[in-house]
Amino acid sequence: MLGLVPLLIIPFILYNLGLTGLYGAGPDGLPWDNEVLSLAMMSGGTWTMTLGDLLIVVALLLLFVEVIKATRTSNVSVIDHLLSTFVFVAFLVEFLLVRGAAHSVFFTLMIISLIDVLAGFSVSIRSAGRDVNLG
Q1: How many CB atoms are closer than 10 A to CB 1?
Q2: CA dihedral 69, 71, 76, 79 (to 10 degrees)
Q3: What is the average pLDDT across 24-38?
Q4: For 6-22, how does the pLDDT look when each residue is reduced to its tens digit (9 = 90+)?
Q5: Are 55 and 14 within 8 A, CB to CB?
Q6: What phi-psi label fits residue 25: left (phi over 0), alpha (psi between -120 and 50 degrees) or beta?
Q7: pLDDT tens digits for 82-125?
Q8: Predicted structure pTM score
Q9: Dist CA 70 CA 63 (whole Å)
Q10: How confident is the model at residue 79 (pLDDT cuts 50, 70, 90)?
Q11: Cα 94 to Cα 3, 11, 46, 109, 127, distances in angstroms
C-alpha cells in the first residue's frame, strides 16, 4: 500500500510546514536560507548547506527511488503514475497561487516532480515495450 504513495509528496509537505513557520524564519520570512551545516574545506573555503539545499537533496534521493519504482510493470504502476501527476499538479497550482511558493527552492522541487512524472511514464512505456517484445 505504501508503494502507491508518491514519495515526492514528502518534500511538498515539508515545504508547506516551513511556510507555517515550523522551522523558524529567515531574513525574507522563509526558512530556506537558514544554515544547517557549515564545513571548513581543505581549500580554505567554507561550504554551507541551507535548509533549502537539504530539502532539494532529500527530493533528489526520493526521485531516485521513484524512478526505481517506475520499472515495475503492473496495474499498480499506473495508479502510482497518476498520483505522481497529481503531486506535480499540486506543486504547479501552489507555485502559481501561493506567495510563499514563489521561491527558487519550491520551483526546483516542482521541476523534480515534473521529472518524476516524465521519467515514470518514459520508463514504464519502455519497460512495457520490452515485455511485449519478449512475450
Answers
A1: 5
A2: 80
A3: 85
A4: 999 999 999 999 988 88
A5: yes
A6: beta
A7: 899 999 999 999 999 999 999 999 999 999 999 999 998 888 77
A8: 0.87
A9: 10
A10: confident
A11: 25, 13, 34, 12, 32
Q: Are strands 46-50 and 35-40 parallel, antiparallel or unpaired?
A: antiparallel
Query: Cell digits for 68?
Result: 526505481
Kind and range of the H or E run holding 45: none
Q: For residue 134, give the C-alpha cell.
A: 519478449
- Alpha-carbon distance of 125 to 99, in angstroms, equals 37
Rounded to 5°, angle at Cα 24 from 18 and 30: 55
The H-assigned helical ranges of 51-103 are 51-69, 75-97
Give the residue among 87, 108, 94, 114 at the shortest CA–CA distance from 19. Answer: 94
Give strand pairing partners of 50.
35
Q: DSSP state, 100?
A: G
